Amino acid sequence: MLIPKPAQSAYENADTDIREMLDRMIAELKATPSWEQRSTQFLEIIDALELAFEGDDEEADDDDFDDDDEYVGDDEDDDDLDDDEDEDDESVEERAVSGEKVNGWHGGGGVVTPANDDGDEVEIVEDFAEVLPFYVGAVLERLGETKLERPEQAAFYLLSCHPEHTEAAQSWLQQGSNLKRFQKFVDDTPDYEAILEMMDEHYDGADDDDVDEDDDED
Question: What is the C-alpha separation between 49 and 177, in angstroms, rounded?
Fold first, then answer.
């Protein structure tokens, strides 16, 4: 199964600091000779990304807690504390809108967006499942593969943000016994199965939200 080149590049549209991180991932995967081994390496990279994503979120929560903990006093002080909390909330929103970032992650909840040189609005992302396809797609496009031949390989192309990748993987799964081979890989790889479950939960929840919004409009 041939793998078409994506019409748009996730890698080229990423911030410079994120591209540097992607380059390290790509180098690690290119140094791995086969997809049997590469799949293990890719899962370790995804696990590290998720830990970093959650770490940024927890750090932001800890900072908010430390700020609140500084205020102890009588009722008048409590009123001051409420005012300060309101100001802190406004400050967080301002940072989110401005696209302030630390180590490539925008805002406190962890946001990955294309380079924002034109002053476009920054999208706030709070769920790792929402940013994972970007990373997978950006890495795969830089690997520059032209053929899809193994279930381990198809497994990660299914996670890509590029429709060209997902369509190629889905077409490959429909050929011969490939679907059974893929299912065996999933059954034998709990870490990958957990990623599929995470993605299903995220997008099923998003679909439910859309249905609720439609009901409200009616």
Answer: 33
38-74 core/surface letters (b: 16 or more CB in 10 A; e: else): bbeebbebbeebbebbeebbeebeeeeeeeeeeeeee
**pLDDT for 104-150, tens place per residue?**
322 223 333 444 455 555 455 568 999 999 999 999 999 999 999 99
Answer whether 19's CB lies under 8 Å from 141's CB.
Answer: no
Count the alpha carbons within 13 Å of 34 in the hemisphere toward its beta carbon: 4
SS3 39: helix
For residue 176, the one-letter residue type is G
| CA 148 – CA 17 distance, rounded (Å) | 30
- Rounded to whole angstroms, the Cα distance separating 180 from 182 reads 5
pLDDT in tens, 44-92: 999 999 998 887 655 555 555 455 554 444 555 555 545 554 544 443 3
Per-residue confidence (pLDDT) for residue 127, from 0 to 100: 86
**CB burial of residue 146 (10 Å; 0-12, 13-18, 19+):** exposed
State how far the Cα of 37 lies from the Cα of 62, in Å rounded to an integer: 38
